Amino acid sequence: MASKVELTGPSGFLPDRIVHLHPTRLCNLACLHCYSTSAPLFTEALDANVLCDALGVLRAEGYTQVSLSGGEPLVYRPIGRLVERAKELGFRVTMVSNGLLASKRLGPMLPLLDGIAVSFDGLPETHNAMRGREDAFERAAAGLAWLAEQGAPVGAAISLTRDAIPELPELADRLVELGAKALQIRPVARAGRARTLAPSTFYDASDSARLYLVALALQMELPETRVHCDLAPAQGLWAQRDAYAGLLAECDDYAERPLGELVNPLVVTDTGDLKPIAYDFDRRFDIASVEGLSREALRDYKRDGVAGLRSLVGAALAGMAERTDLVDWFDHCARLSEVTAVAA
Asked: What is residue 254's predicted lDDT score, i.e. its pLDDT?
C-alpha cells in the first residue's frame, strides 16, 4: 500500500481533496448536455491495473476521495475492483450515475460506497428530452428509490437549463419522496455536447439569481435534506480566498508539497490525462498521464508546470473582488483556461 499524506485545512473550495475519475466515455445514454460527450459508441476504457496503481500514487499525494463518473460508471466492467482498491487505500468513494442500471449492478458495491448520486435534468418530459429516451426519468427514479430502500447514502445531482428552473421545486419534492438525502444543483455548463445547444439554454445573471434563490428556499423547506447549489456569490468566494493559500502562497519549493494541497479537484479523464479542476480544462494545463504515473512525474509538474495554474486561479480570484453576481466557480475557471490558452 502506498504511503498516505494526511492534510488539514481547506484546499480550494472543497471540504475533501477529490479525484474525479472518468474510466470510460461509454454510456447507455447520449445526453444532449453531456460535458464529456459520452455515448454508447465510445467503447474504449482505461486499464483497471493502471488506474489502481495511479490511485496509490494519488493517495500518497494527499487525496482523500474518489468520485467515479464517466460515461456511465456502471458500464465499466472492472468498476467493482476499482472501488475495492480505492477503499483499501483509504479513500472515501462516491459515484454519479444515470441510475438506469442501479438495481442490476450496484448491489455488491453498495457497502463500499460512501455516497451515490443519480442525475436528473428536470421533470419527466424535460429529463427524457435531454436524455433522448422516453423512460429515462422513470428508470432513474426507480433506481434512486431502490438505492434508498437498500439504505444506501443516495442523493440527486441536478443540472438545469434556464427553462427548467421553474421545475426545480416539484422535482426536489419528488426526489426527496423517493428517498434522496441530498440535492446538488447546478446550471448546465457550456461544455462538451452542450456547446451545440441553443444559446437560450444557458444562464444570464438574472437566471443564476433565480436558481440560487430557489435553492435557498429549498434549504429552508427541506431541513432534513442537504441542499447545495454550485452557484456562489462572487463576494463570498473572494472572502474565502484563503482556501487557495496552498496554491497561491509564496513557496520556495512547490515540488515537495503534496499535489492535493495545490490542485483540487484533480480530474482523470477517459484518455488518461490528469487535469486540474474540470474535465474540459484546456489541455495546456494538463498535469501528467495516468499511464505509469509516479510521484516523480508529479514532482516535475509541481516544479515546472504549476505556475500556469497559480496564475489562472490567482487572476480568477482577483476578479471576484469587485463582482456582485453569482459564479459557478469550477466552470468559470474552465472557461478562463480556454481564454488563457488562446492568449498564450
From this structure: 82
SS3 50: helix
Alpha-carbon torsion (56, 8, 236, 183), positive or negative: positive
Mean pLDDT lowest among 10-14, 228-232, 303-307? 10-14
Omega of the bond leading into 71 within 30 degrees of 0 (cis): yes
Cα-based torsion angle of the residue sequence 304, 306, 309, 314 in order, rounded to the nearest 10 degrees: -110
Query: Where is 103: in which H helix or E strand?
Result: helix 102-105
Say what the pTM is: 0.95
* Residue 168 near residue 160 (C-beta atoms within 8 A): yes
C-alpha pair distances (Å), 90 with each of 98, 152, 158:
26, 19, 28
Interstrand relation of 273-276 and 288-289 (parallel, antiparallel or unpaired) = antiparallel
Residue 44, φ and ψ in degrees, nearest 5: -70, 150
Please tell me whether the peptide bond between 265 and the residue prior to it is cis, using omega within 30 degrees of 0. Answer: yes
Q: What's the maximum distance between 2 C-alpha atoms anywhere in the chain?
A: 57
Taking the CA atoms of residue 136, residue 122, residue 30 and residue 101 in that order, the dihedral angle to the nearest 10 degrees is -40
DSSP run (H or E) holding 228 = strand 226-229
CA-based R_g, the chain, Å: 19
Residue 145 three-state SS:
helix
Q: Cell 480544462 maps to which residue?
A: 281
Quote the cell numbers at residue 230: 454550485
